[in-house]
Amino acid sequence: MELNILSLLYLLASVTFIVGLKMLSHPTTARKGNAVAAAGMTIAIFGTIFLYKEGEQSLGNYGWIFAGLAIGTVLGTLSAKRVKMTAMPEMVSLFNGMGGACAALISIVEFDHLTHLDGMSGLLLVLVGSSALQGLLLIILLGLIIGSVSFAGSMVAWGKLNGSLRDFSFRGQQSFNIGLLLLILGLAVYLIVALPPNALVLFYIIFTLSILYGLFFVFPIGGADMPVVISLLNSFTGVAAACGGFLYDNKVMLTGGILVGAAGTLLTVLMCKAMNRSLTNVLIGAFGGQTGTASSGPSQGAYKEISLADAAVVMSYANKVMIVPGYGLAVAQAQHACHELEKILSAKGVEVAYAIHPVAGRMPGHMNVLLAEADVSYEKLLEMEQANEEFPTTDVVLILGANDVVNPAAKSDPSSPIYGMPILDVELAKHVIVNKRSMKPGYAGIENDLFFRPKTSMLFGDAKKVLQDLISEVKNS
User: Fold this and answer.
1) pLDDT tens digits along 194-236
2) The CATH number of the domain where 360 resides is what?
């Protein structure tokens, strides 16, 4: 009876995951979707604690279980409440890394339990080579390898996003990564097929090499490619969690892992397509680490500045204004001021929309989340293809802290590290106003030729302060 109730609870939790994921696809229902999925997770956790039985044996160890739940709940709640919007990408990477570590630890515990079964003799030796044992070892090693790569890679991404780690690469790194991956897979196959007496040592060698692969996989990646990596690592964590579901015959864990893995993989493929990147190159860490040369020099010419008053007049008397948000908007926490400017311009009869690049910011959907927090209408957010169709008929483009995603070098400079990445064609508009703190290059570390073009004017300063002053000027114009 208890097992039937638990199965029903798992089914209910799985349904809430699917419904919650669907609701996350639209900003107006995203918060409710998050709450629905969280409720499903709560049902699954407490259903497992109180109703799961192995034979006639209940879980037990309730003290340890609830202590772990309490610690995780407190740390997670405090972290989520205190994190600034600018640090959200780091938080996503950190939480994702914890998921990968959890999956790897499950594999470590289960393999340790397996190798100590009957002292690696008797029944276990009889099972060596059997499809049942090989299937079990396959799932354990998949969880270990994928979880370890996700953990190590996410920690590097976290460090790079918060500025504590820099891009690191060396000659032949792609070949090294491929060789390391093949070595890991070769050792895993040998362990599954032969299960030698030193299996435990071999298992931890695979674990160590997987950690190293995760590190070297993410170390060279930088620039606008970081959101793709975060998305890919997220899918890894989902697949690793699904492996844990297989191990424990836990349907809700399996469902959740598959959903996360599938969603992350789909997002990664879509982002690679949007950036003209190869998924194969993503897997071996073969992009984003180059250093541009042709666009990095200071000989681009002179740039021109525009005053707040002039910018306000140009925007007030425009028919169509396109706002391009970037990481600088997030750093300044200027999304509310940006929405206020949009409303004031709209009241003057100006058509205002937002051009969203798929990898603007530091994580997938960063700008969408930022603008949704300020209650910007979802209908005003244009994807890159839509925005590029609108730029030729746009009077003014206001760029707020975006850099690499509007850099023409992606189309014109083969030596640039962002060459081939689709960008927002803001240069097609009649006038471009760029708000930046300074003329320093963006995250990819290369100069932006757009800033020196005749139609471009620079408006320096903190995005929030500039927007607030611009709002005052527009009201008076």
Assistant:
1) 888 888 999 999 999 999 999 998 988 765 577 888 889 999 9
2) 3.40.50.1220
* Tokens 């204004």 belong to residue: 321
Q: Is residue 383 part of a domain?
A: yes
Domain end: 228, 256, 289, which one? 289
**The domain boundary residue, chosen from 289, 323, 341:** 289
- Write out pLDDT tens, residues 236-249: 999 999 999 999 88
* Same domain, yes or no: 206 and 316: no
Q: What are phi and psi of 436, to 5 degrees?
A: -140, 160
**What are residue 146's phi and psi, to 5 degrees?**
-65, -45
Q: How many domains, in total, are found in the chain?
A: 3
In a domain, 297, yes or no: no
Query: CA 436, CA 399: separation in Å to the nearest integer?
Result: 8
- Model confidence pLDDT, tens digit, residues 337-380: 999 999 999 999 999 999 999 888 877 788 988 898 888 998 99
Residues 6+ apart with CB under 8 A from 299: none
Neighbours of 275 (CB within 10 A): 25
183 and 212, same domain (yes or no)? yes
Closest CA to 253 of 111, 440, 43, 30: 43
- The CA distances from residue 161 to 219, 426, 461, in Å, are 12, 27, 23
- Asked which of 157-161, 218-222, 276-280, 406-410 is least confident by mean pLDDT, the reply is 276-280
Q: Report the alpha-carbon distance of residue 90 to residue 80 in Å, rounded.
A: 11
In this structure, the answer to whether residues 119 and 197 fall within a common structural domain is: yes
pLDDT band at 122 (very low <50, low <70, confident <90, very high): very low
Q: What are the catalytic residues?
A: 404
Give how far the C-alpha of residue 284 lies from the chain's centroid of Cα atoms, to the nearest Å: 17
Pairing of strands 53-54, 396-400: unpaired
Q: pTM score > 0.85 for this model?
A: no
Residue ranges making up the domain that contains 152: 85-289
pLDDT at 121: 47
* Domain presence at residue 423: yes
- Both 22 and 73 in one domain: the answer is yes
Q: In this structure, what token pair is assigned to residue 413?
A: 């400079």
Are residues 413 and 276 both part of a single domain? no
* Pairing assessment for the beta strands 381-383 and 351-356 based on DSSP bridges: parallel
Buried residues in 42-56 as b, exposed as e (16+ CB within 10 A): ebbeebbeebeeeee
18: which DSSP letter?
A: H
Structure tokens at 14: 């799985």
* CA angle, 313 then 315 then 320, to 5°: 145
C-alpha dist (Å) from residue 206 to 121, 136, 148, 150, 268? 23, 16, 10, 14, 26
